[in-house]
Amino acid sequence: MSTREKTSIETLLEEEVLTQNEIVLFNDDVNTFDHVIDTLIYACEHTAEQAEQCALLVHYKGKCTVKTGEYDDLKPRCTMLLNAGLSAEIV
């Protein structure tokens, strides 16, 4: 085994594996588009355009990933969505 191969293998082992979680928002027949958009702007720090696009995707597709990141960041955001009456979960 050459020195170059050995160094390459060691470098690969040192890389940190990052796991990304997602908040998935689900469609319902209760909340208005305006409420969903306002809540996404507040809880997920979306722009108005991002929030509107997510609301449309949820409406037509049934669900949409609205935020990705580390679990500790997503947990309070998901709680805000749930407290606002939206259906969401972290996956």
Short overview:
With 91 residues, this protein is an alpha+beta fold. The protein has four helices and three strands, in the order αβααβαβ. Helix 2 packs antiparallel against helix 4.
Describe the structure in your own words:
The model has no long low-confidence stretch (mean pLDDT 90). The longest helix has 14 residues. The protein has a domain of 63 residues: Ribosomal Protein L30, Chain: A (2-Layer Sandwich). α2 packs across α3 and α2 runs antiparallel to α4. It has a three-stranded antiparallel sheet. It has four helices and three strands. With 91 residues, it is α+β, with helices and mostly antiparallel strands. This is ATP-dependent Clp protease adaptor ClpS. Pfam families: ClpS. Keywords: Hydrolase, Protease. It comes from Mariniflexile aquimaris.
Distinctive features:
single chain; 91 residues; alpha+beta; Ribosomal Protein L30, Chain: A; three-stranded antiparallel sheet; 3 strands; 56% helix; elongated; hydrolase; ClpS_core; protease; ATP-dependent Clp protease adaptor ClpS
